[in-house]
Amino acid sequence: MSTTASTAPRPTPETPLYPYGTMLADAEGYLYDTDGTAVTLKGRHVTTTELDIAADDCESGL
């Protein structure tokens, strides 16, 4: 999957979307809003790992 995707893939058995907090995530960890729009940060499609790291940084004051 490209890191510049703008919308979520259509969910199928081969490309499921999973709940991730108030968002959705695909099998590769890329995040989407519930309307299917890709979650981006500085123009890049964000993954669950990147979001978790950013949240940890905020909690630790970095």
Helices and strands in order:
Layout lengths: L16 E4 L2 E4 L4 E2 L7 E2 L2 E2 L2 H13 L2
What does this structure look like?
The chain is α+β, with helices and mostly antiparallel strands and 62 residues long. The protein has a domain at 14-41. The chain contains one helix and five strands; from the N terminus they run βββββα. It has one helix at 48-60, and strands spanning 17-20, 23-26, 31-32, 40-41, 44-45. Strands 1-2-3 form a three-stranded antiparallel β-sheet, with no helix packed on it. The chain has a two-stranded antiparallel ribbon with strand order 4-5. A hairpin with a 2-residue loop joins strand 4 and strand 5 (44-45). The radius of gyration is 12 Å and the shape is elongated. The N and C termini lie far apart (30 Å).
TL;DR of this structure?
By secondary structure, this protein is α+β, with helices and mostly antiparallel strands. It has one helix spanning 48-60, and strands spanning 17-20, 23-26, 31-32, 40-41, 44-45.
